[in-house]
Amino acid sequence: MNLAQIFSTLLGKDLAIRFTAYDGSSAGPEDAEYGLDLLTPRGTTYLVTAPGELGLARAYVSGDLALIGSHPGDPYGALQALAGDLKFSKPSAVQLAAIAKSLGREHFKLIPPPQQEALPRWRRIAEGLRHSRGRDADAIGYHYDVSNDFYEMVLGPAMTYTCAVYGDRDATLEEAQENKYRLIFEKLALQPGDRLLDIGCGWGGMVRYAARRGVHALGVTLSVEQAKWAQQSIVDQGLGEFAEVRHSDYRDVVEGGFDAVSSIGLTEHIGVANYPPYFEFMRDKLRPGGLLLNHCITRPVNSARSKARPFIDRYVFPDGELTGVGTIITAAQDIGGLEVLHEENFREHYAMTLRDWNKNLMENWDAAVAEVGEGTARQWGLYMAGCRMGFEMEMVELHHVLAVKTDDHRPNTPLRPWWTP
């Protein structure tokens, strides 16, 4: 049994994609636009020892498996095509025996994964318990301390690594990111002289946006590289009077009495069990009547498992957890002292943001590979294109939740934000 026959046994005969392998075998239509090319025996071992998405990711990131028909900086088209075919069936005992005999014992022996892969959850205990300060710092460093130059190639001049908000479908990524900050700034009803705390501030985009408008903004991030870049950007833009970014756990911020708190893309990292103290922290940092905005990726239902799937956990966000927006709102309400005023879903906007990040990576491919290596560049192309599909297919969403620290006065927000098509 050759490799193409094994592939067909697992996936069925009616393939829409093309499969080719290093043993010279092939399956699927010869004129297929997209396909898989298994290039090495090591790739076979990865696929056999970790069936499913983890094995495919290992083989792809290591360069042992190619996605035919798409650029590695933006493999979206190939992933879309593969999503229709990659439905592994359970082979019979006779088929399994034939597959094992054809492949040989050597392919069933575990081999080291690509260097880009994080340790499995059970081995991270050496770094501390899940969502302890030390382990959180390691997880953030894994993802965000890759290379500031690489991030600039992917994110563009805004250096903003969160969902943009597109005013229309023809808006550029830069326009959409600026629009996102404007929206959050206005939702928080910020005025010159106000004080903003931005937790998980990334490269300081929200901090700089607010500072340019006369707001005193403090940002904190667990990423050393982000803090260095953000603070230098503040200096370069002459915003030192109003802005500061610290390398710090948000829980170590001692200042209080802020007019507003923003959390843009942090909630995914803190763990569902930690939502109550997380919202208590933000509430306690606000003055009475102050506003908070929570921006985070969510699941479309509240009952789904919160832990990330293997590829995301090993190659993207170690220890990341997602839940439904209902769980987030409940956590904010149940601590007391916060009133939820408004929430909205930007799912489609995140798919468009990821599309534009993939485009940037593809256009800067050679420079990106030179900066971080081909394996890491492939890892990012795969991750962003796959996540784009997830948002388009409503497997994940992106929600804003706006709340006020309650007191005897109504918040400084519109009586009702009007709906416009």
From TrEMBL:
> What domain of life does the UniProt record list for this protein's source?
Bacteria
Q: Could you confirm whether the keyword Lipid metabolism appears in this record? A: yes
Could you list this entry's UniProt keywords, alphabetically sorted: Lipid metabolism, Methyltransferase, S-adenosyl-L-methionine, Transferase
Instruction: List the CDD domains.
Output: AdoMet_MTases (cd02440)
Recall the GO molecular function terms of this protein's record: methyltransferase activity
Regarding protein family, the annotation reads: Belongs to the CFA/CMAS family.
Name-wise, this protein is Class I SAM-dependent methyltransferase
